[in-house]
Design goal:
The complex is a heterodimer of chains A (150) and B (509). Chain A is mostly helical. Chain A is built from five helices and no strands. The chains are: A mainly alpha (150), B mainly alpha (509). Chain A: It holds the Pfam family TctB.
Chain lengths: 150, 509
C-alpha cells in the first residue's frame, strides 16, 4: 500500500500545481470581492497540504499493509474491458450507438468472459431491446445512427 | 397537525396509479441493485437517473428514492445467502447473516432483516414527517455564512465520521472540489481550468462523474475476477420469526433504528457507519455477545434496522436544507437540480406536493419492500443465480447511453469512462468516493456563499463567527477536523501502552 499512497500523494500534488498554474492569470481579489482565482487557490493549497500529509503519514507507517491491486489476470481483464469501452466510444460516430453497443456486448461476453454463443446473443438482444425501448422509443432520445440507420 | 394534513395530501399524490407504479419500479430496482454485488444504491440511482428525464418530478423522485432505500433491503439477500455484501452498508449483515444461513437459519436471518428494516424505516419516515418542516422553518434564518459552513461541514464530517483514513477521505473531497472548479466562474463569468476546450466551458456535469466513479468503477472492480458465489437455498416456510426470535431481536431493532436515524441525520456518516455502530452497540448490549461473528440474529437485526433508518434519516438535511448527508442523497439532490427544482429551505413551501408526495411514497415503498422480502424473498434469491457476467453489458451500455442523454454529446460519454478509471484507481488506492461526489454537488453552493459572505464583510473572515448560529457551525467544522487527529493520538497512546505492557510481560518471563 505504501507505493500506492506515494503515487496518490504525488498525483494530488501534481493536480494541485495544475489548478494553481491553470488559474494563475485570474484575479485572486476583484475590487470588492474574492475573484475567480480565490477558490482555486485555496483548493490547491488544501490539495498540497493533504498530499504532504499523506506522504509523511505513509513514510512513518510501518503496518506493512499489502497493495490491493489485482493479479496479472485481473489487470488484463480490466484493461481489456476499458479498451473495449473506449473503442466503442470511438466507433459510435462511424457505426452508430446501437451497433457499437451490440459489438461491445458480444466482445465482452464472448471475447472476455468466454461465455457460450447462444446466451451471449440472447443477452445482447435483450440489452439492445432495452436501450431501444427505453431511450429511443419512450424517452425520444436520438442516439447517433450509423450506415444501417440505427 | 399541519404536518399530518400535509402528509395526507402527500398520500393523495403518492397513491395516484402512475406514482404507485413508479414506487413499485423504484423499490424493485433498488431490491435488485442492492442484491447485485458490485453495484450499490448510489451507483444504481446515478445509472438510472437519465431514464427519469421524461417523467414528472414527483414520479422521478419517488422512483429514485425507492432505489435508495430498496437497496438497503436488497443488500441483505446477497450478504446472507452468498456472504458477499450487496452494498457497503450490509457488511455487518454478511458476518452473522451468512453464519446463520450455514446453520440452516437463512430464512430467520432474512426475516429479522426485513422486519427490522421495515419497522426502522417506518419509524424514520414518521420522524421525517415532523422534523423536516421544523428544520426547514429554522433554516429560513440562514444566510450566506451559514450556508458556506453547513456545506463545508457536510464535507469535513465525511472525513471524520467515515470508516477509513481521514486524510484519504479529505483527498476524495478535494478531488471533487477540483472537478467542480472546471468551467465558468459562477460570479464573474470567466473561464477556469478549461484549457481551451469549449466542451468544458459549462463545467463538468454531475452525472458523468457519478456514473463513472460509482457505476463504471464498480463494474471494473467486479471484472478483476470471474464471479462465482455459492448461493444458499432457502424455503418459503422458513421466512418468519418464532416468538423466541422476536423476543431476541425486538430491542436490537429499536436500538439499531434509533442509532441509524441519528447517524443518518449527520452529514457524511451514512448507512454504512450506522450499521457498523449499531452492530458494535448491540454486541455490548446483547446477553450473548459470544454469538456475534458466529451467527447472532440480534446482530443482523440491529445492523439492518440501522442502515435502513439511516437511509431515511439522511433525507431530512437534504429536503430541509438542500445539503446531502450521503452519496445517495447527493444523487437525489442532483436529480432535483436536473429536474429544474431549486433545493433548499424553500423547497417545502415552493414544492410542497413534491416533498410530501415523496415522504408518503416512502411509507408505501417500505410496505412493498416488506412483502418483497418476506414471502417473495426466495424469488429474488433465485435472481442471484443468474451469472453476473450477463448483467454487465446491460449495466455498461445503459450507463453510457444515460451519460449521452444528458446533453446529447459524446464528450460526456468519454468523461464518464474517464471518471470510471478515476473511480477504479480510487477504490484500489483506498480513497473513498462518496466525499468526491458530495463535494461535486456541494461545491457551487460553497463557493458562491463563501464569496458572497466575504463580499458582505469586505474580506473579513470574522463574518463566519459573528452570528451565534454561524459560530456554532464553525465550531462543528473545527471539531470535525480535530476528531480524526484526536482519534489518531488516542490510537497511538493505546498502541504505546500495549507495547509497554508486552515489554513488561516479557521481562517478568
Amino acid at each position: 500500500m505504501k507505493a500506492t499512497n506515494f503515487i496518490a500523494a504525488f498525483m494530488l500534488l501534481g493536480l494541485s500545481v495544475m489548478v494553481l498554474s491553470g488559474t494563475w492569470y485570474l484575479p485572486y481579489w476583484a475590487d470588492f470581492a474574492p475573484g475567480s482565482a480565490f477558490a482555486p487557490f485555496w483548493v490547491a493549497m488544501i490539495g498540497v497540504v493533504l498530499a504532504v500529509s499523506l506522504f509523511v503519514a505513509t513514510l512513518f507507517d510501518d503496518s506493512g499493509e499489502p497493495h490491493s491491486f489485482p493479479d496479472r489476470r485481473g489487470i488484463v481483464r480490466v484493461t481489456a474491458l476499458m479498451a473495449g469501452l473506449w473503442l466503442m466510444v470511438l466507433l459510435i460516430p462511424l457505426i452508430g450507438f446501437v451497433t457499437a453497443g451490440i459489438l461491445f456486448s458480444l466482445y465482452l461476453l464472448i471475447g472476455i468472459e468466454r461465455r457460450p454463443l447462444a446466451p451471449s446473443l440472447l443477452t445482447t438482444a435483450v440489452v439492445t431491446g432495452l436501450v431501444y425501448g427505453v431511450f429511443i422509443a419512450w424517452l425520444g432520445i436520438s442516439l447517433p445512427a450509423g450506415p444501417f440507420g440505427i | 397537525m399541519d404536518a399530518l394534513a400535509s402528509l395526507a395530501h402527500g398520500f393523495s399524490i403518492a397513491l395516484t396509479p402512475t406514482n404507485l407504479l413508479f414506487v413499485f419500479i423504484g423499490v424493485t430496482l433498488g431490491q435488485l441493485i442492492g442484491a447485485l454485488p458490485g453495484i450499490g444504491p448510489s451507483a444504481g440511482m446515478a445509472l438510472l437517473l437519465p431514464i427519469t428525464f421524461g417523467l414528472d418530478p414527483v414520479t422521478a423522485l419517488v422512483m429514485l428514492s425507492g432505489i435508495m432505500y430498496g437497496g438497503m433491503y436488497g443488500g441483505t439477500l446477497t450478504s446472507v445467502l452468498v456472504n458477499v455484501p450487496g452494498e457497503a452498508a450490509s457488511v455487518m449483515t454478511a458476518v452473522d447473516g451468512n453464519q446463520l444461513a450455514r446453520q440452516g437459519r437463512a430464512g430467520q436471518a432474512l426475516a429479522a432483516s426485513a422486519i427490522g428494516s421495515f419497522l426502522a424505516g417506518i419509524g424514520a419516515v414518521t420522524a421525517l414527517v415532523f422534523l423536516t418542516p421544523a428544520l426547514s422553518a429554522f433554516a429560513l434564518s440562514f444566510s450566506a455564512p451559514e450556508y458556506f459552513l453547513l456545506a463545508l461541514l457536510g464535507i469535513t464530517a465525511t472525513a471524520s465520521l467515515g470508516t477509513g483514513s481521514a486524510i484519504k477521505a479529505m483527498i476524495g473531497a478535494t478531488l471533487g472540489l477540483m472537478i467542480a472548479l472546471v468551467g465558468t466562474d459562477p460570479i464573474q463569468g470567466t473561464s477556469r481550468l478549461t484549457f481551451g476546450s469549449l466542451d468544458l466551458l459549462e463545467g463538468i456535469d454531475f452525472l458523468p462523474v457519478a456514473i463513472g466513479v460509482f457505476g463504471i468503477a464498480e463494474i471494473l472492480v467486479s471484472m478483476e475476477q470471474t464471479q462465482a458465489g455459492h448461493v444458499v437455498r432457502t424455503r418459503l416456510k422458513d421466512m418468519w420469526l418464532t416468538r423466541k426470535d422476536w423476543l431476541e431481536c425486538r430491542m436490537a431493532m429499536l436500538r439499531g433504528g434509533v442509532i441509524g436515524f441519528f447517524i443518518g441525520l449527520m452529514p457524511g456518516a451514512g448507512p454504512t457507519v450506522a450499521a457498523l455502530l449499531a452492530y458494535v452497540v448491540e454486541k455490548k448490549a446483547s446477553p450473548h455477545p459470544e454469538k456475534f461473528g458466529h451467527g447472532a440474529l440480534d446482530g443482523v437485526a440491529a445492523a439492518e434496522s440501522a442502515n435502513n433508518s439511516a437511509a431515511h434519516g439522511a433525507m431530512i438535511p437534504m429536503l430541509a436544507l438542500g445539503i446531502p448527508g450521503s452519496a445517495s442523497t447527493a444523487v437525489l439532490l442532483a436529480a432535483l437540480v436536473l429536474l429544474g427544482i431549486r433545493p433548499g429551505p424553500m423547497l417545502l413551501t415552493e414544492q410542497a406536493d413534491l416533498v410530501w408526495g415523496l415522504i408518503a411514497s416512502m411509507f408505501i415503498g417500505n410496505v412493498m419492500l416488506l412483502i418483497m422480502n418476506l414471502p417473495l424473498a426466495p424469488l429474488f434469491a433465485s435472481i442471484l443465480r443468474i451469472p453476473y457476467a450477463y448483467l454487465v453489458p446491460g449495466i455498461l451500455i445503459v450507463s453510457l447511453v444515460g451519460a449521452y442523454a444528458i446533453s446529447l454529446s459524446l464528450f460526456n460519454v468519454g468523461l464518464t469512462l474517464f471518471f470510471g478509471m478515476v473511480g477504479y484507481l480510487m477504490i484500489r488506492a483506498d480513497i473513498p468516493r462518496a466525499p468526491l461526489v458530495l463535494a461535486v454537488v456541494l461545491a457551487p453552493l460553497m463557493e458562491s456563499s463563501l464569496r458572497q459572505s466575504l463580499m458582505l464583510s469586505e474580506g473579513s473572515p470574522g463574518i463566519f463567527v459573528q452570528r451565534p448560529l454561524s459560530a456554532v457551525l464553525a465550531l462543528l467544522v473545527i471539531l470535525s477536523l480535530a476528531l480524526p487527529l484526536f482519534n489518531f493520538l488516542l490510537a497511538r497512546r493505546a498502541a504505546r501502552r500495549a507495547g509497554v505492557a508486552e515489554a513488561l510481560s516479557h521481562s517478568s518471563d
